[in-house]
Amino acid sequence: MSAVSVLKQNERMLAALAPLLAAAGALVYPAASTLLPFVLFLFLRGRDLPLARDAALRTADLAFSVYLALTVIGLGISALWSMETTAALVPAGAITLVTAAVLLYFFVVLAIALVMALLGRGFRYPLSFRLAERILGVLEKPR
């Protein structure tokens, strides 16, 4: 096996580590699903591993987007419950159903990203706010 193919295989494994860390973090503690891939991104930031670095940043961004969306939706549903005119329209388990649907989406796209990383391809998550990409992209541009 040549040195180049070993480096590419290691890069694919590091890229696959990002969605695995996010999934494990979501099961342990919600903030860990954002922090673990972001720490991986910081570790890879100065290295010449663009696939792994981008996968880690995009995964951290997706995890942040998912939990931000869950917070906003949960607050919106709670606000609807607090108003007398709309309380009867919102089912009692609405927050549970929405949370289950969003987490199902989260784990499905993480599985797709894992497969794409193992194949050596980049993956851009749909329905992600891409805040980290925008902020760090602005910070990394030469002046």
Number of helices: 6
How many structural units, i.e. domains? 1
Total strand count, please?
Answer: 0
What is the residue-averaged pLDDT? 87
Are there runs of 5+ residues with pLDDT below 50, and where? Answer: none
Helices and strands, in N-to-C order? HHHHHH
Distance separating the two termini: 41 Å
Notable characteristics:
6 helices; 143 residues; mainly alpha
Structure description:
This protein is mostly helical and 143 residues long. The chain has one domain (3-140). It is 78% helix and 0% strand. The model has no long low-confidence stretch (mean pLDDT 87).
Write a compact overview of the structure shown.
The chain is mainly α and 143 residues long.
What is the element layout, followed by pairings?
Blueprint: H1 3-28, H2 32-44, H3 50-82, H4 84-87, H5 94-118, H6 131-140
